[in-house]
Write a structure and sequence with these properties.
mainly alpha, two-stranded antiparallel sheet, 6 helices, globular, Mycothiol-dependent maleylpyruvate isomerase metal-binding domain-containing protein
């Protein structure tokens, strides 16, 4: 296992957020004609709901940084609600009449919001998250992890190819996870640490979380 070395760690940037979302949208556009009502990987949600949830994640991380005095003890009080029992609780809901292309447009828009907030917010700003008060880099890294993993879930459901860059995976692993295996396939490590895949010689985690608190 390797612990984070802050002196050698490459920070997560707004450009990384933008890149992750663009890669996701490009990959998912290959499935526009597919049935988005099928299950997304091992999730209890379908592919439409999962992208809607991802769009909501990116929006939520962006707005958490937005107030002049970001909250340190709770979320900015938008109304999050599920459209069905067991569905994701979102503040963002895409118009079904717009179809999958419109759904992906909401993902692009939410990604642009988070990119802008990570780019323009002082690194000294702190805001609440359930896994620890975090900074703009942390919220950006969280948004990337959500993007990479939920794109994996949807791609699995739609039968699409998806393999994000190793460097991007490595940077978010170093930012958000206290200790991770040093296996060279960083995407596989991210899938493993989130309970989605196996690594040789290692048990799959039954529970997982990240640590958003600023490093250093």
């Amino acid at each position: 296992m390797s612990l984070v070395d802050e002196t050698s760690r490459t920070p997560v940037t707004a450009a990384d957020v933008e890149h992750a979302v663009r890669l996701s949208v490009t990959a998912l556009r290959a499935g526009l004609a597919a049935d988005w009502g099928v299950q997304a990987g091992t999730l209890e949600w379908d592919c439409w709901e999962t992208v809607e949830h991802l769009s909501d994640d990116l929006f939520a991380y962006a707005v958490q940084l937005g107030p002049a005095q970001p909250p340190l003890d709770g979320e900015v009080p938008y109304l999050w609600e599920a459209k069905r029992p067991g569905g994701p609780r979102n503040a963002v809901h895409a118009d079904r009449a717009a179809g999958p292309a419109g759904l992906l447009q909401t993902l692009e828009a939410s990604g642009a919001l988070l990119t802008a907030m990570v780019r323009t917010t002082s690194p000294e700003v702190r805001a609440y998250h359930g896994h620890g008060v975090s900074d703009p880099e942390g919220f950006g890294a969280m948004g990337i992890v959500e993007t990479l993993l939920h794109t994996h879930d949807v791609a699995e459901g739609l039968g699409l190819a998806w393999a994000p860059p190793a460097g991007l995976c490595d940077r978010v692993l170093a930012r958000l996870f206290r200790d991770v295996p040093d296996d060279p396939d960083r995407w596989q490590v991210l899938l493993w640490v989130s309970g989605r895949a196996d690594l040789p010689g290692r048990s799959r985690p039954e529970k997982w979380r990240w640590y958003g608190e600023p490093i250093g």
